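Appendix B, Record 12. Input sequence as logged:
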Amino acid sequence: MLSNHLQNGMETAKLLWSRLPTSDAEGEDGVRIGHYKKTDGGTVESLDYEVIENYAYREEQALRGKLYMYYSVCVKWFFALLIGIGTGFAAVFINISVENFAGWKYSLTFNIIQKSYFAGCIIYILFNLALVLSSVYIITHFAPAAAGSGIPEIKGYLNGIDTHGILLFRTLVGKIFGSIGSVGGGLALGKEGPLVHTGACIASLLGQGGSTKYHLSSRWLQVFNSERDRRDLVTCGCAAGVAAAFRAPVGGVLFALEEVTSWWRSQLMWRVFFTSAIVAVVVRTAMGWCKSGKCGHFGSGGFIIWDVSDGQEDYSFMELLPMAVIGVIGGLLGALFNQLTLYITNWRRNYLHKKGNHVKIIEVCLISVITSIISFGLPLFRKCTPCPESDLNSGIECPRAPGMYGNYVNFYCSSKMEYNDLATIFFNTQDDAIRNLFSAKTIHEFSAQSLLTFLVMFYALAVVTFGTAVPAGQFVPGIMIGSTYGRLVGMFVVSFYKRLNIEEGTYALLGAASFLGGSMRMTVSLCVIMVEITNNLKLLPLIMLVLLISKAVGDAFNEGFYEEQARIRGIPLLESRPKYQMRSMTAKDACGNQKVVYFPRVVKVSDIVSILRSNMHNGFPVIDHTRNGETLVIGLMLRSHLLVLLQSKVDFQHSPLPCDLRGGSLPIRHNLSEFVKPVSSKGISLEDIHPSRDDLEMYIDLAPFVNPSPYIVPEDMSLSKVYNLFRQLGLRHIFVVPRASRVIGMITRKDLLIEEHEHSGAVELQSTSQCFLAVLPMAQRKLPICEVRNMTKE
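Logged structural output:
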């Protein structure tokens, strides 16, 4: 009987959940391949993480020796140092600015409410409105790509998708100053997500030598000419952003590994760890300098944001049940948060924001006024509570003035020895409010009514605020929401078990971890971050427990927060595993009925222009003919490379005959840097090129510029294997060809091992007769049936 009721309840919950709007509608069979729409009118483009080993690349590599390799490694470590220093200083600047604006705001408001609470409310609203208005103005008129947290876009970039504008210099400036205005203005959002985006922007700008548009570039920084090297730098920047935001260097490394990167290797781990360590040193040094009072209201901060080392020392077996309940609540509320923000963001992007920038500004200002009225007005309706008996050992003072660091805020109280528990968390900065909720030895400081009121109002404000045209992070609001219901559960546990060693603040910490796990679906990195920011290793097993439960509950309803936001932004992420349905599909099925567009080896300029105008493909097979008349596929030509050749015109020739590549007699007229598209920009377009009539009648030999060894799969290979090949190698194109008729050799693991002789320095490959990997002759590369282009969207 009980099982029947439970089954009926689960079916009812799934039915209700299915009626909530989702990000996109699936087809009848539940499988969708290659259908992504950019909802905001922006553009996304796949990145070329594959090394194009054409003739020019090989000739340039032949001129480089071991000295250049050592130089390249040293430059990578030097850039990791610069990324850590730059991100650390950016985080310190943002934190000092936010804390000082908040300190001035609360000090001014507190001085005015001594005479009139109404006048203090007006000043409070106007102060917040001015800061928020400055933020939204910067975003709408200067850096539109700086809106939001930026983590979905950066995750897409590291997955192989470049969104226009996300890593530009103006985006960096807009992110820094926009975050100061939005967070300092008291909105229900945080600065941690934007700091990850800030670190990525700093890394990207260093990787491409600065910004040429604003004349802030340096030629000696322009070392890396491949998307792969720039990708590694952006990974360092992401880790540095988390390390600076939470002052958690190890958590930053794990965040980059677990959440944002799609390709990882041991050499990158070392550089990411080094970058996070540099951030920790910079932040520690800056905060030590600020403790002397030189940073205004930022003087009381520490490297540990919310220290709970003096909290609950042990726990009993009976407490595991309410802690598991916290995990379930976190999974449910986190999944609901993802679904509601997805629905509101979808409506906002498809309808509201299409009406222009003035609507975006009005929307953010209206939310700012509502948030200020709620945070100032609701505590006025709450009856004050007498201060508890003072404990000299606790170090807690009661009461305190509004906006001052600590618990027990005196706000609209008739007696000086009373405090307003709702004002303690509402009329305060988010960091101080979380510190109050996490605090130990403060049993019964908050009433259940105040916590429930704050939970409902702040949850609603966080849902509505995210997606507006300001930089917005969801880490700190998630911690606020989770710590509130965690403290509620802790109050119940204290009253039920009646034990003196149970701390409500411990349950608040577990609630914060559960909500973040239920919303963002992070486990290892989030667990380490929570331990680092609270300085309590004893709670590690409990944090692991609630994270596992909350993630499992949340996964039953929808995807993680960043995955949902990436989808609604039209960023086609390739997840770590292919869909189950791909096992029964082949590579030819993914191609559909598309027609492959070819280029001959020697092609007329007018034909190139015509083909580029007739389609938007970014890769084209190049074919040639043997003396026997047999057609060969000699490689892959990228659209961006064709545009460079059309613009430079130095490779134009009058003769339709191919050039001779043997013997290295062909001069190299281009640097590899010319073929690299600037990060987050559109690069050269066909509209920028204006060939003359004489130019259109000339020819180009594409052989020196094609990728002669593109990845090729047989037409009947399962789509799941093609998917894994795409994601693990970071590809953009794969040729799909018929079955080969001949094999010229086999390669095994031993064939790839290199032996270097000590005396002569000669290098040779080991040989073996065992065969596992087939090598096909060039002549057997038949014409591709089709071309798989990044699985989702080119």
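The domain at 74-104+147-291 is CATH 1.10.3080.10 (Clc chloride channel).
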